[in-house]
Write a structure and sequence with these properties.
Layout lengths: L14 H8 L10 E6 L4 H8 L5 E5 L7 H15 L4 E5 L6 H9 L3 E4 L5 H10 L30 H8 L1 E6 L2 H5 L1 H5 L4 E6 L1 H7 L13 H17 L3 E4 L16 E6 H27 L1
Parallel strand pairs: 1-2, 1-8, 2-3, 3-4, 4-5, 5-6, 6-7, 7-8
């Protein structure tokens, strides 16, 4: 991902181009971008995940209690710790959350907008991420970048135009209405990718609760098939969280380009449970040998 870096690590990497390249076999680039999620909002977690070789780290400001200053720290920790090799993405509560402004000003390379049901909502999301140069209404921060130091840009451009070109807008599809409107949402100028919100979509469709490893509900598999067709029609990449995907129904993953492999929380739970079970087994073996 360092090939997609802006001139300064305080500016967003060109995630929009990286996503576009996943859909173009002739680009010679990877067809999949692999990432993880910060849901434990501490710089130790962000700093650790940033150096593990992921293409991106998603900071979840929707389901994690994050205030603005910490959000800025987390995003910049990912960029600076990885030296641009890992792109920070932020999922915000909505286009009208104050956290969106801070995520953009901190240099997030992508913004995920949850619970978007219509193309009109998607267009509003795009507008909030673009300056007036690109027909948006993003406000210009007076102190996010240092003049002549971190606001540098290629000749003939500016840091505002770099941001407009680089920041990827990712729309989360997680309701039957959004699924019905997926074609129209994907066609909105400035929408760079769609994300399957399988958990909320499952609930919205009244599917039975599902544990990790359980077979996926046929309704969700049908929804996935519909999204894949939309993706191919519009040449828009698809994103998904993969850590809860069933091993028996995961062949569709090949058609998703932005894969969130795990999260710090999920890995902590999994690792602690496995380590505890392993130690109990070891102690049982030792006790058995003594007896």
């Amino acid at each position: 991902m360092e090939d997609y870096c802006a001139t300064s690590l305080f500016q967003p990497s060109n995630l929009a181009k990286a996503l576009e390249d996943t859909m173009d076999p002739s680009s010679g680039r990877s067809t999949h971008l692999l990432g993880t999620i910060v849901s434990i909002p501490h710089t130790i977690s962000a700093r650790t995940l940033a150096v593990l070789g992921y293409d991106f780290v998603m900071v979840d400001a929707q389901h994690t209690p994050i205030e603005a200053e910490n959000l800025v720290r987390l995003i910049q920790t990912v960029s600076l710790s990885s030296k641009g090799r890992t792109v920070p993405i932020c999922r915000v509560p909505s286009a009208h959350s104050h956290l969106l402004t801070h995520a953009l000003d901190a240099g997030a390379g992508g913004i995920i907008f949850p619970h978007i049901d219509t193309p009109e909502q998607a267009a509003d999301d795009v507008s909030k991420c673009r300056y007036a140069y690109s027909n948006g209404d993003r406000s210009l921060a007076p102190a996010a970048l240092v003049p002549g130091v971190t606001d540098v840009a290629p000749p003939g451009s500016s840091h505002e135009r770099v941001a407009d070109e680089n920041i990827a807008v990712i729309i989360q599809i997680e309701s039957p209405l959004a699924l019905d409107n997926a074609d129209a949402i994907a066609a909105v100028p400035g929408v760079n990718a769609l994300m399957l919100g399988a958990g909320d979509l499952r609930v919205a469709m009244r599917c039975p609760p599902r544990r990790v490893g359980d077979p996926e509900d046929p309704k969700i598999l049908d929804a996935i098939d519909r999204l894949v067709k939309v993706s191919k029609r519009h040449q828009k990449p698809l994103a998904v969280v993969t850590c809860k995907v069933s091993g028996t129904t995961n062949t569709w993953l090949k058609d998703f380009q932005l894969l969130m492999v795990t999260s710090d929380y999920f890995s902590v739970v999994k690792g602690h449970k496995e380590d505890l079970a392993r130690m109990k087994e070891t102690l049982a073996e030792v006790q058995g040998l003594k007896n």
